[in-house]
Amino acid sequence: MADRSSWSRGRIPSYTYPLILELKSMQTTPITKQDLASSVISVPPMARHADLSLAEAENCKIVQHLEAGGVSTLLYGGNALLYHVAPSQYGELLAMLERIVAEDSLVIPSVGSSYGMMMDQARVLSRMAFPTAMVLPQPNVVTYTGVERAIGDFVQTAGKPAVVYIKQLGYIEVENVKRLVDSGSVSWIKYAIVREEPAQDEYLARLKDAIGTEMIVSGIGEQPALTHMQKFEVTAFTSGCVCIAPALSMHLLRLIQTGDYAAADQVRRIFKPLEDLRNAINPVRVLHSAVAGSGIADTGPLLPMMSPVSESEAAEIAGVATDLLEAEMKFRDGVN
User: CA angle at residue 141 from 135 to 143, to 5 degrees?
Assistant: First the structure.
């Protein structure tokens, strides 16, 4: 175990997680409820070089930090800015993801959010072993039945079911989701409509009544996860902050699953300072900066159309992320 003074400076020594770039296998079988429940579903950023090319070694550091903390599911979507990835780079990106994960890890890429982009990406995915891909939500110029048709077209072309990402009202209705589920087109559902009171959620209640909860995952990080899993009995949760503190996030998941809600709430509070910054500034930009500021990996520039946080924001984010990383390492020390 590394010297704690290195963590206080926000840097993990390179020998803590030895870099391995030659792993060629990953989970390729259909995703089950047991798969979803076995791990927090991490949603990492995508590290890039200054010229916006993929930084494989840095992305590998992020993956190995997650895997060292017990996380085995990686979902590359909004935090990785796959909304803006060049179609010409998509195959290269998928090949990199296959290389950098452990043999028993589950990797899920994303497609879209435009119809034409997701259909071109479906043809690429049809030749690869990923068991599913998430359809990124398109917030404009959509109708419920249009989104249902688009997801169905993707599934038919890719030859694999889709992860349906419900991020805002007005994107897809419960009856459309149920038809997709009944047709076998859905692998699982990332539910991420933000509510001021997560316990008061009429849409999630209707979704639960329509399709059950086995394939529903809370999609907004650690803060609403306890409520979503306790009240609505969803199967698991996704997280960006898990990229800083994977073992703590996994501990939170296990506490909720065993019904120790008071202890789970105490762990949830450890993530709140970084989550608050993500909510106040921007979730994607803050996580990208937090992974770099904590020393886990050099994430490099964000893809345009996004821009980095300011220098003062980056300094504040680095301090909060380093505190979270120190809590993570103390927790690992206590477990081992």
Answer: 75
Distance separating alpha carbons of residues 204 and 216, to the nearest angstrom: 9
Query: Which residue in the block uniquely carries the two structure tokens 């698991």?
Result: 236
Phi, psi (degrees; rounded to nearest 5) at 244:
-90, -45
pTM of the model as a whole: 0.92
Strand partners, 237: 218
**Calpha distance 274→286 (Å, rounded):** 8
Q: How confident is the model at residue 25 (pLDDT cuts 50, 70, 90)?
A: low
Three-state DSSP class for 183? Answer: coil
pLDDT digits (tens, 9 = 90+) for 130-154: 999 999 999 889 999 999 999 999 9
**CATH among 3.30.300.20, 3.40.50.720, 3.20.20.70, 3.30.420.10 for 21-191+198-276:** 3.20.20.70
| Residue 12 C-alpha from the chain's centroid | 22
Total residue count of the chain as it appears in this document: 336
**Domain boundaries, given as residue ranges, for the chain:** 21-191+198-276
Q: Is the peptide bond before 5 cis (omega within 30 degrees of 0)?
A: no
Is the separation of the CB atoms in 297 and 291 below 8 Å?
A: yes
Tokens 């803006």, residue? 84
pLDDT digits (tens, 9 = 90+) for 230-289: 999 999 999 999 999 999 999 999 999 999 999 999 999 999 999 999 999 999 999 999
